Amino acid sequence: MTTRTVLTVAGLTLREAARRRVVWALLALTVVLLALSAWGFSKLVGLDTELGTMTSGEARLVASLLLNLIMFGLSLIAAIGTAFLAGPTLAGELESGQALVILARPVRRSSVLLGKWLGLVAFGGGYVVLAGLAQILVVAATVGYWPPAPATGLALLAAETVVLLTLALLLSSVVSTMASGIVAVGLFGATWVAGVVGGIGGALGNDGVESVGTVSRILLPTDGLWRGAMSAFQDPIALVQMGPGEGGFPFLSEATLSPAYLAWAAVWIAMVWALTALSFSRRDV
Amino acid sequence: MSTADAPPLAGPGDPAVRAAAQLVRDLPPSPALWCDGLRKRYGRRTAVDGVSLSVGRGEVVGLLGPNGAGKTTVIKMLLGLVRPDCGEVMVLGRPGSDPAARAGVGYLPELFRYQPWLTAAEVLGLHVRLAGADIPRDEQHGCLELVGLAARADDRVGGFSKGMQQRLGLAVALVARPELVVLDEPTSALDPLGRADVRDVVLSLRGRGVAVLLNSHLIGEVERVCDRVVVLDRGRVAASGTLAELLGRREVRLHLTALGADGQARLAAAGPVEREGEWFTVGLSAEDDGTTVPDLVRDLVALGARVHAVEPARISLEERLLGILRAGAGDRS
Q1: For residue B326, what pLDDT is reported?
Q2: Mind telling me which residue stretches traverse the membrane in this protein (chain A) (predicted)?
Q3: Does residue B24 register a pLDDT over 80?
Q4: Which of A110, A125, B177, B252 fits A158 for a cystine, CB–CB 3.0-4.6 Å?
């Protein structure tokens, strides 16, 4: 009974994404982004600057910087897309009475929630992985740069999306549809800014400011995972060239992620999911 | 205790086991729906206060009461959609907290919406899967035909009018071969033809032994199809019983002239009297064996009254309902 419910609801969630034209809107946005970046990267090679023609090493540095920048754009699209898809999922269906007819069937509410979550994970994660891979191929074709660990990077980007949509689901089980999407995206942005602030603190040697980034990365693991993904995409020489004083630069990451942090991200997702399930199962519809 | 000490297990051929199995088979089936002492508070307001009711297998029960009486809240508690503060629920012989209890339940909510991006046929398919039923496509289409939506099976639900959504809701409630159907205001958005269709559907469900709990404002509808009625008022059961029990009080209207004091006393002895000019309405007791009216007329004539007309009158469910609710309001004030 449980597996059937989970799969049915997951399929329904994916079908909703397709029918509501979310997929097509995202696809169009992504194609535009990829085309623009392909054009930009092709101009990068043999670019004339005031210092003369860029060396291939410089081009690789700029390429890995830009790759991270575009990946950030993709993760932002995925974040906003899934947050606004996850919001209506619970709050909207409870408000409109769609939940009423589904929950009156012989289904456990936790199974319905798991199905929705899996559908959203497949959608958001799938989008990030496919669009990110396309971007990596565009960069490889135009400037010949291949990131050191593309699979790890894409997996971490997908994990970042999963964190955000899990948060959006929790919010949508307690506040209204619009509020949940806005709060989730707002928190995502705030954590990213806090991470940049922490990076600047680190570069300046100010422990107090640096801890802002550390604490925010623990409270909401999106920024930590994003930094892990960046370090998997960037040219390892880039950071050396930038020098230690540039550690605060938002589109380069200093270190790969520790297994402990990854484990924490997994625990975080499980905890937030369990809270959502608890709040959803006690809710009157 | 080791297994060696345990008495030998009785096999299926054992006479005692066969007798026990027969005993269980012969037990009367549990009610389709049963609840006891349901209570629900929203903040300071008590929405439902100690409601107990039951719907037998194959029985059609109407739920009546004014707005805000707690009818929809009771229905939602019966279906596990709202958590009661206290009280017990059994659905088709299983505790209401067990989702499997709802496997044989079809539900048409009062306010609802289906996924607007699905077609009518897809909505039915979704609910068949969620119910864990195996219903062939022809039969699913038959449900749409029954509610007059066969031609719209492949249209998206988002373009349906309120009335068509309600028809679809009825099809969804019926599609998974339910043993119990709960209809919450099933005709609120329907035209008179649609209302007649719903009445026919409920009657055919009763014919097939499916239990129905029907919440409706349309008393005439309830009166026509229900075996029993439960009246809720301010979260409590104000009255319940079969229609014969609730409507048991019959009346007789008499057109009388030349009625003396003796005649008036004789009228009052037969039952409560209401007078409008020369018309007198006398309430008759439920235990009346059919002799009260002829005896009354004979005595009135003997007392010199001139009898112009004697008309039997039956209290409608509406009047009875209003009487119950007004009596309840009077008790409180």
Answers
A1: 82
A2: 22-41, 61-86, 117-146, 152-175, 182-204, 261-280
A3: no
A4: A125
